[in-house]
Amino acid sequence: MAAKGKKEKEEAQGGCTGVPCLVSDCIAQIRERGLQEDGILRVSGSAAQIKELQMAYRKGKKSDLTNVYIHTVGGLLKNFFRDMPDPVLTFDMYDQFIKAAKIENDEEKKNTIKNLISQLPIENQELLHRIIIFVAEVNKYEEENQMTLKNLASMFGPTFLRKKDQDRAEMLQEMGEVISITQFMFEQCSALFDDWPDEQNHHPERKFILGKGGQKKVKSAIKNWYGNAWEKEVKKRGTQRPKSPSQSVPDMEPHQINHKEEGEGEGGAQEKKEEKEEKE
Questions:
Q1: Confidence class for position 17, pLDDT limits 50, 70, 90
Q2: Domain housing 178
Q3: Residues 123 and 254 in one domain
Q4: What is the pLDDT of residues 120-162, one digit of tens each?
Q5: Residue pair 34/40 in contact by the 8 Å Cβ criterion
Q6: Could you tell me what percent of the chain has a pLDDT over 70?
Q7: Is the pLDDT at 182 greater than 90, yes or no?
Q8: pLDDT of residue 237
């Protein structure tokens, strides 16, 4: 039997390669019918429908976004990054990225950021790669959609890079750096990921080198937050996901993430209860 071509493989996988299918599906829909939509990724759409779709994806259910209002699709994508219990650039590396944002020489800044990205978990690298390539594509239609890179960076920056337990005053003080480094990554997306095959193929597992012979891998929270649904999608669509280090992250509903600790257990218990009822 002849081997499947690239397009056939992508169709068999539902377009989901190496990142959560919620992200892959939203990007595919916006590419198909939303790139020239005025205010795409700025207008949020239906909050109720976004929550409903979030829960469906979290439970591993297949969601057809074909007829969903395109701004609701955009809101679903933005909320995914906002609700991550540990942001895509991770709490652990917040200070390093803020420091990189202050580098004045563009070449030095680019090399520093590229090195920092290589220290992220594979899941986070793939997710970052997919979203910044996509956002840069959205910006190509700026004349039609009115979305400048600064606008896009202002929306995504605070969800990509945030500090754990950061008070409002500190957050506002460093917001300029958060937005500027996010915009820089959008502008330099090709250079930052020039050693990656393309966005349809996930990067192979690789070592993360810091200093002389030192190795470090920042743990990923993606698997444990979105893991159950991701595993179901992987099996259902035949997608191979790269390995990730384990990390204990409480199961929470999206609206409960980042709430006080005493509320965390309730979210996990509720989700388990829903899963049990679904099986019955």
A1: low
A2: 14-245
A3: no
A4: 999 999 999 999 999 999 999 999 999 999 999 999 999 999 9
A5: yes
A6: 64
A7: yes
A8: 42
What torsion, rounded to 10 degrees, do the Cα atoms 82, 83, 86, 88 define? -40
Judgement on whether residues 26 and 95 belong to the same structural domain of the protein? yes
- What SS3 class is residue 201? strand
| Mean pLDDT along residues 12-36 | 82
Q: What is the DSSP string of the chain?
A: -PPPPHHHHHHHTTT--SS-HHHHHHHHHHHHHTTTSTTTTTS---HHHHHHHHHHHHTT-----TTS-HHHHHHHHHHHHHH-SS-TT-STTHHHHHHHHT---HHHHHHHHHHHHHTS-HHHHHHHHHHHHHHHHHHTTHHHH---HHHHHHHHHHHHS--TT--HHHHHHHHHHHHHHHHHHHHTHHHHTTTS-BTTBPPPP---EETTTEE--PPPSHHHHHHHHHHHHHHHHT---------------GGGTTS-GGGHHHHHHHHHHHHHHHH-
**Domain holding 111: CATH number?**
1.10.555.10
Asked if 268 contacts 92 with a C-beta cutoff of 8 angstroms, the reply is no
Provide the mean pLDDT of the chain: 75
Q: Are residues 72 and 150 in the same domain?
A: yes
**Position 200 in a domain:** yes
Q: Are residues 91 and 221 in the same domain?
A: yes
**132-141, 198-207, 242-251 — which is least confidently predicted?**
242-251
Does 255 lie in the same domain as 182?
A: no
